[in-house]
Design brief:
- 30% of the residues lie in helices and 26% in strands.
- By secondary structure, it is an alpha+beta fold.
- The strands form two sheets. A nine-stranded mixed sheet has the order 1-2-3-4-5-6-13-7-12. It has a four-stranded antiparallel sheet with strand order 8-9-10-11, with helices on both faces.
- It starts with 8 loop residues before the first strand and ends in a 9-residue tail after the last strand.
């Protein structure tokens, strides 16, 4: 086991003749070092550091002399709280598969031992990946090396997701008149609908929450408090769909802006009203709200296996532009063991 708190570890089992050094960044002034490898979220790093969503102590590098062989970083949605996700993990593409395995494992376990308390659950790993990553040999080789390292530390793949985007100029669906919409009144107003939506959900994260022992109500509260409550965009955008006349709730949609993009953050149709195509009406309402705000784009995501939801996004004019993959560590354990 690598000793906890050792932020500068030198080992003789390096992929070249010089020693491998694994350490965190000394401060924001070392961001250029971290940027010697590339990933699609690189442009967000400076602002993340400035706002406290990312700390230098959470940003680790593996160095062979002055050559960057690997890097990783955790992120959180709000400054001052624990890491929420491991969202950077890159290895130099010129390394062999064997070298990636050695460097990646040493980097991940050394950094985790220093950042994540022993016995605590490791934050979920998430990565954006090309939709055709399995068909491109070089991309597949690099990604499978990363996934192999994660699995050696006890992680398992949770889900692969479609990332979607609505762009200005795309026609906005007109209301069909089948539903009426009202703003969400308060936390309880939405939680009362999120809870039944989670029962029988096709969403892998929702299924994982329920499999962990959480009740549907507890999983809904967790989702609300850890994600939805942190959006700075107007809650007046959030809508509940009802049947005309009776006011019976059918579903809801949460158009919002996260730290980076405007998004359809959450959408759901109650079990009693599924099978009637209402999801198209609910999604169209959320899209209309954001389009009326003249946002530069609307982002959304759905599980690759959630075919009905993906089809609804396609009908609303959303285009799939890449995939994302998530790995989870189900069992807490001593980091770095």
């Amino acid at each position: 086991m690598i000793p906890r708190g050792n932020h500068d570890v030198t080992t003789s089992s390096a992929p070249s003749t010089t020693d491998l050094v694994v350490r965190p960044l000394a401060g924001p002034e070392e961001l250029d070092l971290f940027l010697r490898l590339t990933y699609s979220l690189d442009h967000e790093l400076a602002d993340d550091l400035a706002t406290g969503r990312r700390l230098p102590a959470w940003m680790w590098v593996a160095l062979d002399g002055d050559r960057l062989l690997g890097r990783l970083s955790w992120w959180t949605h709000t400054a001052g709280v624990d890491p929420q996700a491991l969202d950077f993990f890159d290895l130099a593409p010129e390394l062999s598969a064997e070298e990636r395995a050695e460097v990646g494992l040493r980097l991940l376990e050394t950094a985790t031992a220093a950042v994540i308390p022993a016995g605590a659950s490791r934050p979920e790993f998430g990565r954006f990946i090309p939709a055709d990553w399995r068909e491109v040999p070089e991309t597949r080789s690099v990604l499978e090396s990363l996934f192999s390292v994660l699995e050696r530390t006890g992680a398992r793949p949770l889900v692969e997701r479609l990332r979607l985007e609505w762009r200005p100029g795309t026609p906005v669906p007109e209301p069909k008149g089948r539903l009426e919409f009202r703003p969400v009144q308060d936390r309880e107003d939405l939680l009362a609908l999120m809870t039944p939506v989670l029962e029988g959900t096709l969403d892998a994260h929702g299924q994982s929450d329920l499999a962990s022992g959480l009740s549907a109500r507890e999983a809904a509260e967790l989702h609300f408090d850890e994600e939805l409550a942190n959006y700075s965009s107007p809650r007046e955008w959030w809508r509940i769909a009802e049947l005309p006349g009776s006011g019976e709730p059918v579903g809801f949609v949460v158009p919002a802006r996260n730290n980076y993009h405007h998004t359809i953050a959450y959408i759901g149709v109650l079990p009693a009203h599924r099978g009637h195509g209402y999801v198209d009406d609910v999604l169209a309402e959320g899209t209309r709200i954001l389009a009326a705000a003249e946002v530069p784009r609307i982002r959304a995501a759905t599980d690759l296996g959630n075919v009905p939801m993906a089809a609804s996004f396609a009908r609303a004019g959303y285009v799939a532009f890449e995939h994302a993959i998530n790995y989870v560590w189900d069992a807490p354990g001593e980091s770095g063991s």
